[in-house]
Amino acid sequence: MKEIKFDFNNLFSLNIGKLHGVTENDLKAVSRQALAAQANLKKKLSTEASRVKLSLEWAMLPFQSRKTIDEISRLGQEISAKYDDVLFLGIGGSYLGLKAAQDALLVPYYNDFKKLRNDRPRIYFEGNNLDPDTLNSLLKNLNPKKTFVVVISKSGETTETKAAFEIVELWLKKHVGNFYGRQIIAITDPESGTLRKKVNLEHAKDGLSLRSLPLLKGVGGRFSEFNMGLLHLAIIGVDIKQVLSGATQMAKRCSKENIMQNPAYLYALLHYLLYRKKGKSIAILMPFSESLKSTADWYVQLLAESLGKQGLGRTPVSSRGTNDLHSIQQNNIEGENNKVVTFIKLEKFKSDLAMPATSGILSGRRYSQLISLAQEATEWALVRAQRPNCTVILPALTPYYWGTLLFFFEMATAFEGELLKVNAFDQPGVEGYKNYMYYKLNKPGIPQEVISQIRNHPLKKDSKFIV
Ligand code: PA5
Questions:
Q1: Is 326 noted as a catalytic residue in this protein?
Q2: DSSP letter at 22?
Q3: Is residue 434 annotated as a catalytic residue, yes or no?
């Protein structure tokens, strides 16, 4: 069976010159640090206690038991058979993986055409913003009696998810009546948080109300697609075993001691070198596939929240070919040379189109050939401009390869965290805005230190700076 490949030719000085490309000497100089990072990560991953404590338990998700997978698959089938629409509520790590899976693994326009859905429900995502218009519009048009709701929040405290859930609950209650809770599943921490408390309360009153699935200990939001995302996969009819089997395959490749044969570690190491030694601080992920755009969005969160700390971290940008060749590409080629572009190339699309014989230079070509040529041309243009770029090659966009791809990026991010010496599994920077909102909303129990910070640094709005 073909495997996912990482082509890093165009990160090297051989192709893009010594000023911008990695040299053999650069690699040699960093080898001791790389080995130390590898040993550190290996140690952290070696026991369950350490994995749970350090939020690395996600690395074990590919190896979940058959029993867990079968139970979730059954639950997904039950929901899928009974409802016209499923509404997922969640944000950040409790949303982006689902959206990525939805767009990568379902046929395009799935929601729009009954025939494409094969009797499965339409899928909607809310709670990923506080924009009143989208939720309002959706609830006005969904049939509450035929809608199932999955609310996902690891902490059970996130404002966006909480707010949406309150509104949706009220809507269900009003239209469905007392047993509305039977149309809801919560995916949340097994023990803590207000969502868990609510689940336990409701569940005690009626065993079929507010059923729940656990977001496992030691699995942080953005690393949790293979945990909290499984019910979604089951509902949309994606083979969970295939997704996890792809991730398992990548996990095996990532356990190779020789970093040069370990795609995720090598990816991290080369990007780390280009960042620290050549000033390439922008990471552009550009899949040449419409279906993978949301996977690039997922990656943005993964990289930004994991590594953007202590004044460090590459800035991720989500892009897509060929669409963005008519947009960001100008800057990629002639703007500041501070970026690395990672292409994701599909060797085989789910379908194809042949151009008619009357199409001039396009005559007789297939769409898949044209997109592949566009990717090659972009690569060439970047190399010519001495801009580092690399390609992750997927044999096809199947559940197996998509699982492989996600795990590849997860492992690469964890390893880059070790190289940078930052904790890749927390997100203290996100707390600032949350604290400010809580303060303004009079949430009880805000620490005095936080209150003082907010009072001592008020937002200054001088009208002379507003026109
Ligand atoms: O990666 C993370 O941990 C975060 O992005 C969270 O997923 C996000 O903040 C949502 O949190 P929660 O699932 O607790 O609602």
A1: yes
A2: B
A3: yes
What's the confidence (pLDDT) of residue 297? 98
pLDDT at 431: 84
Distance 318 CA to ligand 1 centre (A): 19
pLDDT digits (tens, 9 = 90+) for 50-82: 999 999 999 999 999 999 999 999 999 999 999
Cβ atoms of 54 and 135 closer than 8 Å: no
Domain ranges of the chain: 5-46+242-420, 59-238
Measured CA to CA in angstroms, residue 164 lies from 91, 196, 314 at distances of: 11, 16, 32
Q: List residues near ligand 1 (CB under 6 A).
A: 91-94, 153-155, 158, 161, 220-222, 305, 427
Strand partners, 213: 187
Which two three-digit tokens encode residue 81? 């058979």
pLDDT of res. 87: 98
Q: Which residues of the chain have pLDDT under 70?
A: none
Domain 59-238, CATH number (from 3.30.160.20, 3.90.1640.10, 3.40.50.10490, 3.30.230.10)? 3.40.50.10490
pLDDT in tens, 440-454: 999 999 999 999 999
Q: What is the pLDDT of residue 432?
A: 86
3-state class (DSSP) for residue 119? coil
Q: What is the 3-state secondary structure (H, E, C) of 28-61?
A: HHHHHHHHHHHHHHHHHHCCHHHHHHCCCHHHHH
Q: To which residue do tokens 């020789």 refer?
A: 258
* Closest alpha carbon to 61 in 189, 246, 193: 246
Distances (CA, A) of 230 to 97, 197, 401: 10, 23, 16
Helix (H, G, I), strand (E, B) or coil at 98: helix
- Residue of the nearest CA to atom 3 in ligand 1? 221
